[in-house]
Design goal:
Structural class: mainly beta
Distance between the termini: 22 Å
Strand content: over 45%
Number of helices: 1
Radius of gyration: 12 Å
Largest sheet: 5 strands, mixed
Number of strands: 5
Number of domains: 1
Order of helices and strands: EEEHEE
Length: 69
C-alpha cells in the first residue's frame, strides 16, 4: 500500500525538537519523524517505513511516499 502525502517542517516549542509532521487524509494518521533520524537516513523523507500501524488500513511496515513542500 503506497500513498502520496505532503509534509512540512514544524517546531515543537517546549523543547525545540525539530520534527516532521505528516498527516494522511485517508486514514487521519499523524506520524512524527525526528530530524536526527533524517540525518541518519536522508531517504526517510522519500520512503518511510512505518514500524507500527497508526490507524486502520496502515499496517506494520507500510511504505509511505512523502513529497516535501
Amino acid at each position: 500500500m503506497q500513498l502520496t502525502i505532503s509534509g512540512e517542517w514544524q517546531y515543537q516549542t517546549n523543547d525545540d525538537i525539530q520534527f516532521l509532521v505528516i498527516e494522511t487524509v485517508a486514514w487521519r494518521c499523524r506520524l512524527l519523524i525526528l530530524k536526527r533520524d533524517l540525518s541518519l537516513n536522508p531517504n526517510l523523507l522519500r520512503s518511510v517505513v512505518v514500524q507500527r500501524g497508526c490507524a486502520d488500513g496502515i499496517k506494520s511496515k507500510s511504505r509511505i511516499k512523502i513529497k516535501s513542500r
